[in-house]
Amino acid sequence: MAPWKQAVLSALATSYLTPSTYRSRPDLAPPQLNITVPAQNANSSEYVFIAPYSRKSTIDRPGPYIYRKDGDLVWAGTGYYAGFVANFHPTTYHGKPVLQAFQGTIDSAHGEGFGQSVLLDQNYQHVVTSTGANHRISSIHEFHVVDGKTALIEVFDIIRTNLSSYGGNSSQQWLGNGIFQEIDLTSGDLVFEWNAFDHVDPSESQTSLGWKSSNSGLTFTQAWDYFHINSVDKDHNGDYLLSSRHTSTIFKINGTDGSIIWRLGGKKPSFTQVGNWTFGFQHHARWHPQLSQPGTEAFSFFDNSGNGEITLNDVSRALVVQINHTDHTATLLRKAPAPYGLLAESQGNAQLLSQDRIFVNWGSEGAVTEFGADNEILYHAFIQSAISYRGFLGNWTGTPTEVPALVASKLSSNLVKLYVSWNGDTETKFWRFFYVNGGKKTRLGQVSRNSFETVFTWTSKLALSDSSKFIAEAIDGNGETIAQTGLIGSTANV
């Protein structure tokens, strides 16, 4: 057995699984996290945002989820987003914190999709839905809010063209083009649009025509996805940073005329990579002006280093790069390699955080890692039987509008166990329980809220009547009641 496989099996053997079912919310079935390196601050307000799914349909409820670092559920987005969900995390819209996610369909043959991106407020209520302009349909990879007002989206645009210059015959005529747009989130108006086929010849592709049957170019559904945009960012000068997976190139695009300012990597690089380092099939390139010096630019990205057919490095990595416009060099400022020998053939992202931490989602390998300033592993978890296109750490305050859920399970004539939860709530510190009989409300006790579902057991001095009812109140850090469950009768324990 390969050493890295043995390391993964060993890690899983010493990991612990988080809960996946709840008595108060049996309709929720969050994918479990196999935590192999526990976080020291597992119950902090810095949460994990992922949207697990399975290519083999082995999880019950794919979709967006918020977890504490100990794997405890904070929010299950079941019913809030529909279809295939990706790129889920908090952002800001007109100065207010919101959640964002893509929802729609996925074309797994190309790793593309068609849908829209939806913003929800802190009450988990709809704020705005963003779609492509110019009769374009958003794909799954990018929805990046800029200054809380506009968003960058990516479009998989299938066109018909002559592919004979790229080895095609007369029957091979379908090309998967890449387009990105900047959209005004409030009005939906187009701010900017860029078309890859206008600027980058398909000969630059690292994935040749017909490298897979799904990319044969023979039919509309088998279009050759030569470019494959998977991220776009914008700098303070109005220029764009674009990652093209299938050319293994990161581009800087002029925000006025769309011309290419420079290329990192690929077949036509603008820079010499100091130290002869390599990358390829990358994702999630993001500017970091705080790391730049005069005459340089800095950015991070997730280096897959392989696509299932070609392998460039032994493991995937998070990279931070500085390019120098004086000597035309590109230097690695930081490299955070994957633990357990993880090599993600698709998907993934790298998020730079405070205190020089990096949070990495390992895409198709179904895992996340938080690195410290010296690349020490502060936290690692595998997503049980699932993967996530991107993953993030972030702070979030959730105040659901829905009523908390309460179940009262009668264990005997005078013994009741109460289960309470409030999907998406981050503010409850205690749950206070009450018995209601004949209109009289009697306080039973109070329990600290330490997990998604809180359990309280009550023994009555007398046998409980069939008309006995219970309620629970959510208490915040100031001792104030912020929500109350409905009046619930007890049911026989099953």
UniProtKB/TrEMBL annotation:
InterPro entries: Arylsulfate_ST, ASST-like, EF_Hand_1_Ca_BS. It holds the Pfam family Arylsulfotran_2. PANTHER family: ASST-DOMAIN-CONTAINING PROTEIN (PTHR35340:SF9), PQQ ENZYME REPEAT PROTEIN-RELATED (PTHR35340). This is ASST-domain-containing protein. It comes from Penicillium olsonii.
